[in-house]
Amino acid sequence: MQETLRLGHIAGIRIGVNWTVLVIFALIFVGLAAGRFPLTHPDEEPWAYAVAGGIAAVVFFLSLLAHELAHALVAQRNGIRVEGITLWLFGGVAKLLDEATDPGADLRVAAVGPLVSLALGAAFSLLALGATAIGLAGLVVGALWWLALINAVLAAFNLVPAAPLDGGRILRAALWRRHGDRTRAAVTASRAGRGFGLALVATGLAALVMLPGLGGLWFMLIGWFIMTSAGAEEQHAQLQHTLDGIRVGDVMSHDPVTVTGHLSVDDLVTSYVWRHRFSSFPVVDGSGHPTGLVTLNRIKQVPFGRRGEVSVDSIACPLAEVPQTSPERPLSELLTAMGGATDGRVLVLDAGRVVGLVSPTDITRSLELADLRRPAERNHL
Ligand SMILES: [Zn+2]
């Protein structure tokens, strides 16, 4: 889901929200201020319910953020690049740009989220007990107990062994470690996800028919989301299986035409874009070391009249944001990286020099060739 509003950075990780977060915020706020709190703590003023509900809802989102930040920070520590965190309708998503290279890292990244939620649940319980002991107002205690409960529920729900939930990732890591086959593990976790999603949809439907209210609709929505994400993950895993054994060097475009950064965009267009059939050019410095990548899309954004004064350096995607690999790496590793900021281009480096470029077309072509090589193998997962 897209980021509607960027909130800033925490520990170098971009934090944003999607507008759908307002829906869940409103549901929680109304549920607490007009539902739960008046029931559990009668005899309070309406404004007190509203304040307690508002603060509890905000702290809930901070808890959610802590859960996602834990995923993101542990991922970074394990060499996995993080694009950012987005809060939305169904909670939070930490978007990772690479996949774990071993089951241990996969497990650590997945498990730390529910662990943080569990710890928060315990901390809010202790605070609630403390608040009771020193005789704070009933609503404060009520809000703290609700926060303890909701964090515990968040941890428990996320531990269900079904992808894309954290429990599904833990299952994948465990199966991966046991059988040494990441694809098989990922497919099993995704199928569990589809089953769990379907069960949630069915439960929601039954609740909608048999119980008053629209609570069942929520289960159906979450179930549907889990089912479709799990399906997409299974496809992704199958794709990776198809690419097994193919190296980056086998499919990359060799020795791409490089350009220097101080060139003007005008010179780039007349001397390179018109002369070569490529749509992206690695940018190098005076000694031939890469500094970034410039693509047709980026060139097009420079107004026609300003092409003479704008340098290639100023419009190029900086090297830090360009996915990089080397010729010996397995091609399957690139699938996640290719969704990045540079129109899906990946730079292939060898000893600090640009030796190739991989584009989505190269991947499509290699998939078609893989089909030719082993037509029947793909369904045996
Ligand atoms: Zn999580």
Structure description:
This protein is of the alpha/beta class. The chain has two domains: 5-242, no CATH class; 248-373, CBS-domain (Roll), CATH 3.10.580.10. Helices cover 56% and strands 14% of the residues. The protein has a four-stranded mixed beta sheet with strand order 1-2-3-4. A four-stranded mixed beta sheet has the order 5-12-11-10. A four-stranded mixed beta sheet has the order 6-7-8-9. Strand 7 and strand 8 (290-295) form a beta hairpin. Helix 2 (46-77) packs antiparallel against helix 3 (103-133). The longest helix has 32 residues, at 46-77. Zinc ion binds at residues 67, 71, 113, 158, 166.
Number of strands: 12
DSSP summary: helix tally: 13
The residue-averaged pLDDT reads: 87
Provide the helix percentage.
55-70%
> How would the global form be characterised?
globular
**How much β-strand is present in the residues?**
5-15%
Kindly name the structural category.
alpha/beta
Which ligands, by name, code or SMILES, are bound? Answer: zinc ion
Largest sheet entry? 4 strands, mixed
Strand arrangement within the widest β-sheet reads: 1-2-3-4
CA-atom Rg in angstroms: 25 Å
Structurally, how many domains make up the residues? Answer: 2
**Order of SSEs:** EEHHEEHHHHHHEEHEEHHEEHEEH
- The end-to-end span amounts to 29 Å
Low-pLDDT windows of residues: 375-381
Query: What is the quaternary state of this protein?
Result: single chain
SSE inventory with pairings:
Blueprint: E1 5-10, E2 13-17, H1 21-40, H2 46-77, E3 82-88, E4 91-96, H3 103-133, H4 138-158, H5 166-179, H6 182-210, H7 215-242, H8 248-251, E5 253-254, E6 259-260, H9 265-273, E7 280-284, E8 290-295, H10 296-300, H11 312-315, E9 317-318, E10 324-325, H12 334-337, E11 346-350, E12 353-358, H13 360-373
Parallel strand pairs: 2-3, 6-7, 10-11
Antiparallel strand pairs: 1-2, 3-4, 5-12, 7-8, 8-9, 11-12
Helix pairs in contact: 1-2, 2-3, 2-4, 3-4, 3-5, 5-6, 6-7
Bound molecules: zinc ion.
